[in-house]
Write a structure and sequence with these properties.
The chain is an alpha+beta fold and 82 residues long. The protein is 27% helix and 33% strand. The protein has two helices and four strands, in the order βαββαβ. A four-stranded antiparallel sheet has the order 2-3-1-4, covered by helices on one side. It is globular and about 40 Å long.
Length: 82
């Protein structure tokens, strides 16, 4: 098993982004493929989503999909790191 850790944080300068980490995490999960297995942790200023994959070679396409998901208008002002 291979883990992709998605750490989402809000850009404090973005006036129109949803401020609650719960809201942003729920939106991100809605944009991810339903077959992904994940576990979330919500903090005061952000969230962490750990996604499990069977193979290392699945991480490249997964990162690209997460990049596209964070361009969703509802996630405007949020960024992700690994």
């Amino acid at each position: 098993m291979v883990n992709l850790r998605i750490q989402g944080s809000a850009d404090q300068d973005a006036a129109d982004c949803p401020r609650l980490p719960e809201t942003a995490c729920i939106r991100l999960v809605a944009l991810l493929p339903p077959q992904w297995r994940w576990q979330q942790t919500i903090g005061d200023a952000g969230f962490t989503l750990d996604v499990l994959f069977d193979e290392q070679d699945e991480l490249g396409p997964a990162r690209q999909l997460v990049d596209r998901a964070f361009r969703d208008p509802c996630l405007r002002g949020w960024t992700w790191t690994q």
